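Q: Okay, next protein. This is MarR family transcriptional regulator from Aeribacillus pallidus. I've checked the sequence twice, so it should be correct. Can you predict the 3D structure?
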Amino acid sequence: MFFSYTQEEMERALNLFHTLAKAYKNVSDHANRDSKEHGLNPTEYAVLELLYIKGPQKLQQIGSKLLLVSGNVTYVIDKLEKNGWIYREKNPKDKRSVYANLSEKGRQYFDEIYPIRALRMARVFSGLSEEEQVQLIELLKKAADSSNSVLFR
């Protein structure tokens, strides 16, 4: 299917893309620095945060939820398990399904560091009002949904 856009629409879309990319990089830099201060790389932090917030997760689902390649997930899970942050558990109903769980050590550590991340992210977005933050969340969700539907056209 062919789509017709004006020059102005295309330039606005590119401007939006560049602005979003710059904002993402700036916020990511803060988050990455925060992760490193706690002795974790960003992927390790993301896996631990997912387990902390959402509870046990199937190994296969962790990658898709965090937009990671399955080989990376296995490597990170192995490393986190070796360090005692998480443990694997087979699903008693389906022996092929393996879940990652946060260990007590991992939970206690995240109880300490998660509020620090939350505070730092609050500072990062403090230039926006509460209403603007909520609006930005909704707009980004809408943009994500819209971009997903374009991939399949």
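A: Here is a summary of the prediction. Residues 24-151 form a domain with the Arc Repressor Mutant, subunit A fold (CATH 1.10.10.10). Strands lie at 57-58, 86-91, 94-102.
Q: Noted. On to the next one.
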